[in-house]
Amino acid sequence: MQPVEIDDHTAEYWTRQIRIGTFIAVGVTLLGSIRVAVDWPPQARWWVLPLVVVAVLQGVMLRLPWRRYVRSARTRRWLILWWIAELPATWLFAAADREGPMAYLPCVAVLLVTSAALYGPWVVVGIGVASAAGFLVLLPLRTDVSPFSAVVFTGIMASVAAVCAINARSRRWLDDRRRASERRIELLLEASSDAVFAIDVHNTVRYASSSVRSILGLSPGELSGPVLNDIIHPDDIPGARAWLHALFAAPAGHTTRTEVRMRAADGTWVYLDVIGTNRVDDPDLRSAVISLRDIGTRRALEDQLTRQAFTDSLTGLPNRALFRDRLEQAVARRRGTEVAVLLIDLDDFKLVNDDLGHGLGDELLTAIADRLRREMRPGDTLARLGGDEFAILVEDVDEPSAVALAERLLRAGRERVRLASREVSCSLSIGIAGGNRRADQLLRDADLAMYAAKRAGRNGYAVFDPSMSRTVLEEAQQRVDMERGLAAEQFVVLYQPVVDMRTQRLTGVEALVRWEHPEQGLLSPYQFIANAEANGLIVPLGRWVLRQACEQLASWRRETPAAADLRMNVNLSARQFGYEGLVGDVAAAIADAGIPAGALTLEITESMLMEDITAAIETLGALRRLGVRLAIDDFGTGYSSLNYLKRLPVDIIKIDRTFVAQVDTDADDVALVDAVVGLGQALRLQTVAEGIETDGQWEMLRRIGCDQGQGYLFGRPGDPASVSELLARQTAPAPA
């Protein structure tokens, strides 16, 4: 029994065979009419007209839409009556014609061959038996046929019928094999995460795999024909057409890729990675093979990381990178007008963080950002450059207007801010720089003016003046002090615990440098690291910190068994990372301390890696060959694509504290951290969360699956003795 539905290939085959059979029937009928007109008795030649009418009717049947008709199983079954009807018609003609037996044999042979092309062996056998019976009945009517000839002709008919039946059976077997093969391919494609299209040069979809349902929610039948314009996003149609045109114009076998948005069954737009291969020259295909993969999740993560790269996660303002880009564009397009930069810093913000905690400090920054935004014109750009530093870009403005804006900002900043149950007052220091200078000069000059405002007593503004370059002398003095400090070992290393997120057991420490200045007291890294980076002293300072940290780890391992698996994390600065002797310094520090290379983890920020990704990969590879572990610090605050991340030979990604601060209250931060942790698991990287301060943050990060964490919840940076105490508590027996 034929299947209820057949594919396009089978329908085309049936249509072709029916039209071939019909064409033969028309030809045979016309030949018969000629035979009647020429050789039959005059009184019987009127049969010419019926025969011609039959030939015309059969010719009309050539034009019927058989491709549609044969898709019906009932139509295919009833078509056998056509062949059956041809038998008596052929027999009657043979009985009336004097050469009838000779005409009968080839006609029934044609019937057997054409029926074998469509139907099974039993149908062919049935037609063969009926044909042979008709021939045997026909023989007594003709006396000129010898018994031997009758036997020979009957044997030939039986042989033709047998061969046709065998061919029909073989065709059925081949069709079954083809369908099974196609079914296997369909099942494989259906299980694939990719959908496969075949698109011809007219941009018509000739084939769509069933796996398209899992991507777009559409059936393959809904994607047949010229439907591309209906499902591709209008903004992507020109690019998609150009891409297809280039693909078809490329050499055979050429492969290229693009990205496009397509409409799903629910009306949403799905981002797809599209890979196309030109197979137009293949006679069996005559199309381009298109593979589609859903990259919506990846694009969402990349878009989120891109927003984080150019947007401050706390305030929603542009960050330093975006501000710098807009400033450069403003400077490039100015025509006879001035561009001004206002650099704003909150006075004594560190005291707010220390007294009230980082949570309330973030609330203060958000409140100040809202106030600054209210004082600006719609076309101005307000950005948070980092920490408590903001910047404003103002175009088409003169110095008095910039000063007036600064005064408004100062008044807004002095308004008291309510944080939790208390009110806090703060002030701003603002530096102003304008004129027809380059973008980097404007930023530098505004920075100098801002520090001038701070030196003048804070809570005020200053307009840049060339005399402010005296600060360069102050930085030079700090360089001298740092050189003396290195020689006199005024620097100290503190260690902050890194713990297992499930057990809160100590697994490692991060080395953090402080400067015990003889006059200014204990200085945090924010007060000298930037200057050390600028003047190059960061290299010897970083080398000293590295050796101190390795020696301290070796000391802990000698003193207590609990430190046997303890790891040491050491930060590398940008200049230190680019230093040619870095690998040698690391190797020497490990060897001199006598610790395993795998016990040392070097932390590098994303921004450092992206400055020169090729050189970064080379340096990381050299460090990895030493055996040390490598971590990307402040992950998510820079802009490293997933393509680069999978190429970097790193072991750990450290999630920046800006994403951790509200992970227990902000669903967006939860989603982002979950995505980063999932990314780490997919790339077989450990994840470490920084800045954990509350149990709620710890619990959420633990549920998400973050491997390790550090922050004030587990311990502040302390001296080596404080770490020894933690190790001792871990090994002490539990009270009975």
Précis, in short:
This is PAS domain S-box-containing protein/diguanylate cyclase (GGDEF)-like protein. Helix content is 53%, strand content 18%.
Please characterize this protein's 3D structure.
The chain is α/β, with parallel strands linked by helices. It folds into 4 domains: 8-176, no CATH class; 192-300, Beta-Lactamase (2-Layer Sandwich); 311-464, 2-Layer Sandwich (Alpha-Beta Plaits), CATH 3.30.70; 486-715, EAL domain (TIM Barrel), CATH 3.20.20.450. Helices cover 53% and strands 18% of the residues. The chain contains 29 helices and 21 strands. The strands form 4 sheets. The chain has an 8-stranded mixed beta barrel with strand order 13-14-16-17-18-19-20-21, surrounded by 4 helices. It has a 5-stranded antiparallel β-sheet with strand order 2-1-5-4-3, with helices on both faces. Strand 1 and strand 2 form a beta hairpin. Helix 5 (80-96) packs antiparallel against helix 6 (100-116) and helix 14 (349-356) packs across helix 15. It is elongated, with a radius of gyration of 43 Å. Keywords: Membrane, Transmembrane, Transmembrane helix. Residues 256-307 form the PAC domain.
